[in-house]
Amino acid sequence: MQQRTIGTRKVSAIGLGGMPMSIEGRPDEKRSISAIHAALDAGVTLIDTANAYHVHADEVGHNEALIARALREYDGDTSDVLVATKGGHIRPGDGTWIVNGNPDYIRGAAEDSRRRLGVEKIGLYQFHRPDPAVPYEESVTALRDLLDDGVIEMAGVSNATPEQIRIAQHVLGGRLVSVQNQYSPRFRSSEPELELCAEIGVAFLPWSPLGGIGRSGSGRGFEAFQEVADARAVSPQVIALAWELAKGPHVIPIPGASRPESILDSVTAVDIELTTEELERLG
């Protein structure tokens, strides 16, 4: 599969988002593990997770443990797989999401994630979401310390503004490697962050990259994606991912999937090179 770069690591141009495997409405573990194995078979070498991808308060890290199990049980080589996890978002078990940017919490969360993943060093660790109660630079200082202490290999931030990206790059001494923000045909407000990442040489990982495009069609207002998909005999989801890949070589979409069929459809986007005319139609 086509590759792109995060820090010092080469990864597949399309990653796998693990969240649907562990939150509300999740499938049984057998199907989730089959989806992860299908992704690996297809050449996916980037898997995204977080300690907050769970349902009940007593199962923090459900998705991390699931991914670790799937990697252990895979009968192929996983040495080139980069697992990216996050800390700083908490699910107390009542269906809500809250933030915690306290440096001590982030440090402890990273140590717990490392244990669940069964690794000596987390490949990529990202501060999940800013905490209004904690100065951003203080939260990112925890990432700096985790890097310096060898707990994590690389550091990134998620749901960040351009100003926060610049703060993170400064606090980390130029070692910021990724920004994971929501971005899709419907949700385009992260264009400034995407462009800044290109400018400073940081990977941009769109989460929910298929947002707004339903499985049965393009969704209201996205007829162009359906039309381009029909002309190429592919799904509109594939066109959405190809459109994101065309935004720059630093863009690595991470579509969520819990079925083998979904991720196998998504990875075909790397083989589609949209024309200038098609890109103009898609906007």
Structure description:
α3 (103-117) crosses α4. This protein starts with a strand and ends with a helix. The chain has helices at residues 29-41, 62-73, 103-117, 136-148, 162-171, 191-200, 223-232, 236-245, 260-266, 276-282; strands at 3-6, 9-12, 16-17, 46-48, 82-87, 89-90, 98-99, 122-127, 152-158, 176-180, 203-204. The chain has 10 helices and 11 strands. With 283 residues, it is α/β, with parallel strands linked by helices. The protein has one domain (3-282): NADP-dependent oxidoreductase domain (TIM Barrel, Alpha-Beta Barrel), CATH 3.20.20.100. The mean pLDDT is 95. The radius of gyration is 18 Å and the shape is globular. The strands form 3 sheets. A 7-stranded parallel beta sheet has the order 3-4-5-8-9-10-11, with helices on one face. Strands 1-2 form a two-stranded antiparallel sheet.
Q: Please indicate the percent range of residues in DSSP E strands (runs of 2 or more).
A: 15-25%
Computed structural class: alpha/beta
Q: For the largest sheet, list the strands in their spatial order.
A: 3-4-5-8-9-10-11
Number of strands: 11
- Overall pLDDT confidence: 95
The CATH first-level class comes to: Alpha Beta
Give the number of helices.
Answer: 10
Provide the CATH superfamily: NADP-dependent oxidoreductase domain
Q: Main beta sheet, described?
A: 7 strands, parallel
Helix content: 25-40%
Radius of gyration using CA atoms only? 18 Å
